Here is the input.
Amino acid sequence: MSFLSILAAVVPFTATTITDPIDDTRLLAFAAADDENMLLLACKEGTDSLTIRFVPDRYYGPPATLFFEGPEIVSRFSRAKPEQVGWYFQDTGIDFMGGLVGANQQKAKFLDDLARDDTFSIRYAVDDRRTETVTINYTIDPAELSRFLGKCNPKRVNQYLREWGSPAAPSTP
Here is the structure.
């Protein structure tokens, strides 16, 4: 794929609900995916939780490492400074959980940046010798993101978004 075709590929964030056929629990998802990569927000409805996950096309699982924290992961929205805190390798993707201190505030900042921007980039180690850099150009309806966050109801995250006057903030409960 050429550099110009990557710039031209803009994907919309869309919301969906997946109902478990056995226990009827509802997983809410809000995601932007090109043919290869996905940036996903997900929760079980009304659980005061929120998962922020990046799922790259080529993912080999958590890299083997001797270091406690693992290899570096850096992300950036085009209108923000690069962030190195809060990303962790999981079995199926890379999750943004926030740091050890202030995780809810960091998640809220991520969502505020997401609502105000249209480009997300992430660089992560595949192994000791290789890194991958992926950019997703997206469109987002902040009102739809706000509705999604209202249904998930991560209380502290939503509280920060409201205090900041973020376009991602759900209406007052």
About this structure: DSSP finds four helices and ten strands in the chain. The longest strand covers residues 131-139. The radius of gyration is 16 Å. The beta strands are 10-12, 14-19, 26-33, 38-44, 51-55, 73-77, 87-89, 94-96, 119-125, 131-139.
